Amino acid sequence: MFVDAIERVDLFTRPLHSIVRLYGHDGIVPGTATLFFVNQEGYAITCKHVADLVAQADAIFHNYQEFQGARRNVLKEKNAAYLISQLETKFKLSIDTIIRIRNNFVGCVDQFQQLHIERHPTQDLALLRFEGYNRLLYRSHATFLGDSSRIKPGRSLCRLGYPFPEFTNFRYNPSIDDIEWNTSGRTSSPSFPIDGIVTRLVGDANGITGIELSTPGLRGQSGGPLFDTNGLIYGMQSVTSHLHLGFDIEDHEVLVNGRKRRVSNYPFLNVGKCVHVDVIKAFLREKGVTFYEG
């Protein structure tokens, strides 16, 4: 049903690859998110919570560097362990605190000198503008649904994103005590579509702001487009909600591999929530960004 649409949307949908290091660990945690381009001028949209992590990367590492400098100054003190623990409190560091994030915008532009971020004041939406590039690496651009009255419960729609971080082109470099990208290993992650039907339109006092789908959006699909069989964009994947179904069982006896077991289960329905196309278009108009409707 969505074969042709996925091929169209894939031309302007791109992954954000991230690698993360946590305090007290040398291991690297890979992650992904999604963005898609709205014109041929280097403008893309993604979720605000994704853009925030990108924007905070330098400040997070600067905080860790300041801690490292202060730590070196007390290493020779008799009560070094105590002083270091005080520094950890001062710099808000504990086991599993993020100390380093490196991001790689894959297949977007050949290079860029600055990434300008505009955040929506209330919705999980951000506008990215790549500046200082020589060549665009994405092809085509989004075409947004013109008549949003077509968004009704029961309509089948699809999302495209990058939920599985299968890239391996990174390493920990002990000589500089830092994580870094390298040229070996796998550099790509597969895109992954997931469809569903519209279940409800959601909103607030200001009107309809979102679209709920019968299936979840997967981690890493945040910022990916929501589209119909023609490839028209209806919204953007934002978050997954967990609706308690109430079919709970507690301490129930069942047979597992021929043996009796007592189990409990509290089922939930995981539904995806997307930013509504009208919210996206209004934000682009406010920022004076060229976009296209169909």
UniProtKB/TrEMBL annotation:
SUPFAM superfamilies: Trypsin-like serine proteases. One of its GO terms (biological process) is proteolysis. It comes from the Bacteria. Transmembrane segments: none annotated. InterPro entries: Peptidase_S1_PA. The keyword Signal does not apply. One of its GO terms (molecular function) is peptidase activity. The keyword Hydrolase applies. This is Serine protease. It comes from Spirosoma telluris.
